[in-house]
Amino acid sequence: MQELNDLRGELPGHGLTYLAEIPYVYHCHHFNLFHDQCIEDALGEDAAIELKVHAAQDAFRDLLSSLCKATGATTPAARIELATSVFKFMGQGKLNILCDASGGEARGDFLHYSFAWMEKYGAKVKRLDPTDAVAAGYAAAAVEVAYSLSPGALTAVETGCFAMREPSCSFRLSVREPLGAPVPMRRSLQALNVGKDVTGQDGDRIAKITAGLREFLRGVAGDERGLIQAFNVFVTMHSPTYYNRTAYETLHRLEESGSPAVAAAEALFGESGHVCVFNTFGNLLLSPEWEALVGPLSGEVEDTVSFCCAIARALGFGNWVIGELIPGERLVLQASATYEAPFYLARYGQSEKP
C-alpha cells in the first residue's frame, strides 16, 4: 500500500486528486448504485451495460498503464498481479484474472457493486441483470495493459453475478476489433481546464481539517475481502472519468434522440450527489474518527458547512470554499474546479448549460 500511496498527488489549489497522475475520487456505494441505476433507467439495460463496461475499460486502462510505468511492472504476470492488488486496494473487491492475449475468464468475489447491491436491496428486490460493469471493464483493461494490446481490443461480459444470487461473479473476455480510446485524462490535461483559485470564509480551518482527512485516507484500503467498509458505508477509490463519461454520454444520447427524459435524467444524476453527501458526509461527521480528528459536533450551521467543504476537498471533489453563508437564508459554495468541469472541457469543449 505504501508504494501506491507514494504515487498520490493533487492539483494544488483545486482539490483534485491523482494516483500516478490519473484522477481519482472517493465515493460510497449509495452514490455508485444510484449513479449506475440512472444510466440503466435512461438507456435500458443492454445499452447501459455496454456504456459502463467501455467507460470503465478506458478509464482503468489509463490508470493501470500509468501505474505499470511508475512501478516498473513489465511482464504480463507482474502487470496482472499489480492490477488485482490495485483493485483490492481501491475497495472494489477481489478479482482473479485468468487470461492471456486472446482472452479467457475472470472471477470476482466481494465485488463492490454486487455485494453492496445485495446488502442494500437483496432482501427486498430480485435483480435480473448483472451489476458489475466496472469490474468487467477493469478486467478487460488489465489484460490489455498486461499484454500491450490495442485499446479496446477485448470485450468483457459478466456471465454470473452475486447480485443475481450466484455464489460469485464470473466474466468472459474475448478479442474484438480494437475500438481505440480517447486521450487519457491526466493531471496535466486537467490543469489546462480549471478556473482561477478562489478563497472564502473559514479558509484556514477548512484547509487544516482537509490535510488531516487526507492523511487519514492514506491509511484506508480494501480489507481481506477487498472492500472498504467504514462510516456505515462501503467506500471506493474510483475513477471520476468513469462517472463523468457515463453521465454525460447518457445525457448526450437522450438529447440526440430528442427524448423528453433529459430533464429527469439530469435531476436524477444530481440526486445521486445528494445521496452521497447525506450518507457519506453525514456518517463521517457522526463517526468516532471525526471526533478524534476534529472534535464533537457543535450543531452550528457554520461549522457543518465548513466541515462538508473539508470532506469534499479530501475526497477529491474540488476545492470547495464558502462564498457566502447566512444561516437559514443563503449559502453560496464556490470552486475553481469540480471533478466534472475539467473532464467536460477537455472531452467535449465548452458547454451551453451548467
Protein traits:
alpha+beta, four-stranded antiparallel beta sheet, 11 strands
Q: Could you write a compact summary of the structure shown?
A:
The chain has 354 residues and is of the alpha+beta class. Helix content is 49%, strand content 18%. The chain has helices at residues 2-5, 29-43, 45-71, 76-89, 112-121, 133-146, 187-190, 203-217, 240-256, 262-285, 288-293, 301-315, 341-348; strands spanning 8-11, 16-19, 22-28, 94-100, 103-109, 154-160, 169-175, 228-230, 233-238, 321-326, 330-334.
End-to-end gap:
38 Å
User: What proportion of the residues is helical, as a percent range?
Assistant: 40-55%
Q: Largest sheet, if any?
A: 5 strands, antiparallel
Task: Assign an overall shape.
Answer: globular
Mean pLDDT: 96
Residues in β-strands, percent: 15-25%
**Oligomer type:** single chain
For the biggest β-sheet, the strand order reads: 1-2-3-9-8
Number of distinct helices: 13
What is the SS-derived class? alpha+beta
